[in-house]
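thread: overnight batch results

M.L. [08:02]
morning all. the overnight job finished for the chain we discussed friday. pasting input first so we're all looking at the same thing
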Amino acid sequence: MKNITVYTAMTLVLLSLFCGCAGVSKEEIKEQERPAAVSGRVSKTIAILPFENNSVTDPEKYAPLSKGLCAILIADLKNSNTTLQIVEREKIQAILKEIALGQSGSIDQATAVKAGKLLGAQSIVFGSFMVLGNNVRLDARIIKVETGEVLTAESVAGDSSGLMNIAVDLAGKIAKSMKVAFNPVPLKSSGNLDAAVYFSQGLDALDKGDKEEAKRLFSKCVKLDPAYKEQVDNVKGLSE
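M.L. [08:03]
and the structure it wrote out:
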């Protein structure tokens, strides 16, 4: 009887110690294995690369939109109260310059992944645009940088007089595919296409270091469609 009592006591002590240690380790394991999106400790970081120009109508005229669409999408996502961390356009341009990829350079999947790794992004968006008559089409793919896999492919299209509406539609689809909220700011204009070209040319001039030419083009853009003033205000390095 005495031996049984001692054995029972020892068993209870060991179980108590084991359960205590096990409880701590389980909590630690749960915390370590919890997805970043759930724990909230790590935000989703996404980079949007310049779009390739596949325009059929006046391809040379609309070539600058490659940068402009990228900037507009970045602004749309940033202003939508999304939890996504958006890589700054200026940082993207610096990386593209580093890997010797100019505005007219074609961005394939391998190049997109390489740029994404250098930018420290978890996902990267790249694609193309097409102006055909009075219509504009945007095609985008979202790539998981770590594996290089295509997470989703999205397309939007509409009348060329509503470029801002088209861009907002695509930004919303990007946010939805990343499983984050998207609350766009109400548009003041549907988005004049020619104004978007001036805006895009201004970005290109700024990237080349010609601030005076950039200001002139941005001024023409805003004069043609005042709604683009918010886009111009988002441009960094203009007043420095």
